[in-house]
Design a protein that fits this description.
Helices cover 35% and strands 20% of the residues. It is α/β, with parallel strands linked by helices. Helix 5 packs parallel to helix 6, helix 7 runs parallel beside helix 9 and helix 10 packs parallel to helix 11. Bound molecules: S-adenosyl-L-homocysteine (SAH). S-adenosyl-L-homocysteine binds next to strand 10 and strand 12.
Length: 350
């Protein structure tokens, strides 16, 4: 069966032609999937019954299952998604005022090797397909009541999105197009460990999505210790690529910085970070470490976070501290899957 939500596989227009159906049926099906939240072909009531049955025989809308659905009192919901091959990924819905933000995954696991992150502990298993990325969006959208719509997307779940750009871009196209979820590119953020070639590719493609670059250190020496993949990628190359993306997209850059007590949260780190980023139209997003079971890293005290913020602001930077939502449901990337992991997955982590 063909995955209808996978733009590369579906070929719905051609399929409809072989069925002798008018071309406008493709738009009808699309409307049911994205705006109408139809759970199956049976609900697509303006399609002829025979066509609905033929669609159901040749196509599947859903390839995934939801083995776990967690909620907190603060409106955060997290889904553990089971993929057809038995792998698992995670995605999250966050409610904040009128915002309905989702955080989605781009790969099963991750190969970037950030030492403090749960997602990469077992390495990367594979890229997600565009259809699997879109399924996360639609499953989270369907958690909302009829009169609410998703407003923002952050690609900050499991995986490195820029290592799977070929599948991510068609999925974000479905998110942003008027006949998809209709979410403006300015409300969609791609978070990257900082892969310069892929950032240049985004700039070349005239992408209008926001870019968030995970720095975590003000110099290469410390960064090499915290982010394994960075050993081949100097900060100057990442910043040059990010600056170019800023020029072509006009989007303010965001730099993410996970604060790890005693490792990268000293005043001297803040001073050097301020110096490194000086003169840029950028926002620094500080993320106090969310502890991962079995890893030795610690969250800094509120006082030392405040001092770090003050030093950065004193150095002329825009700074925001990320509010920790959903801690109680393991909402940090990769944690739910890990907590629910099969022994097979755990043994890979050694
Ligand atoms: N691979 C991408 C996106 C995935 S994670 C990237 O590196 O940006 C999104 C952000 O969450 C990254 O900045 C990542 O470093 C951070 N993160 C991962 N694990 C974390 C943890 N346990 N606590 C706080 N932030 C974490």
């Amino acid at each position: 069966m063909t995955h209808l939500l996978d733009p590369a596989a579906a070929n719905l227009t051609e399929w409809l032609a072989t069925q002798g159906q008018p071309g406008y049926r493709a738009a009808q099906v699309r409307r049911w999937l994205f705006a109408g939240r139809a759970p199956s072909f049976a609900e697509m009531s303006d399609l002829p019954t025979a066509l609905r049955e033929k669609l159901a025989a040749d196509y599947q809308i859903w390839t995934t299952t939801v083995p776990l659905h967690k909620q907190t009192g603060d409106g955060t919901e997290k889904l553990l998604i089971g993929l057809a091959d038995g792998e698992q990924i995670e995605c999250v819905l966050l409610r904040d005022g009128t915002r309905r933000t989702i955080c989605i995954s781009s790969q099963v696991g991750c190969a970037m090797g950030c030492v403090f992150c749960a997602s990469g502990l077992a390495g990367v298993a594979r890229n997600l397909t565009s259809g699997e990325i879109i399924e996360q969006m639609l499953r989270l959208d369907r958690l909302l009541p009829a009169d609410e719509r998703l407003s923002h997307i952050v690609v900050m779940g499991m995986g490195e999105p820029l290592a799977n750009l070929d599948r991510l871009l068609p999925a974000l196209e479905a998110a942003s197009s008027a006949d998809g979820l209709g979410i403006s590119p300015r409300r969609i953020t791609i978070s990257t460990v900082g892969l310069p070639r892929a950032i240049h590719r985004l700039a070349d493609a005239n992408s209008r999505y926001n870019l968030a670059v995970s720095l975590h250190a003000p110099d290469d020496e410390l960064r090499h210790k915290l982010v394994k993949v960075s050993q081949n990628i100097p900060l100057v190359e990442i910043l040059a690529a990010a600056d170019r993306y800023f020029e072509t997209s006009g989007r303010r850059l965001t730099f993410e910085y996970v604060l790890l007590a005693g490792l990268n949260d000293h005043e001297q780190h803040a001073r050097r970070l301020a110096k490194l980023l000086r003169g840029r139209t950028a926002l620094v997003n500080l993320i106090p470490y969310n502890p991962v079971a079995g890893l030795p890293y610690q969250t800094p005290s509120p006082t030392s976070v405040r001092q770090f913020v003050d030093t950065l602001r004193g150095g002329g930077l825009n700074v925001q501290v990320r509010e920790r939502k959903g801690d109680r449901i393991d909402a940090a990337c990769g944690q739910l899957r890990r907590a629910n992991a099969e022994p097979r997955v755990v043994s890979l982590a050694k």
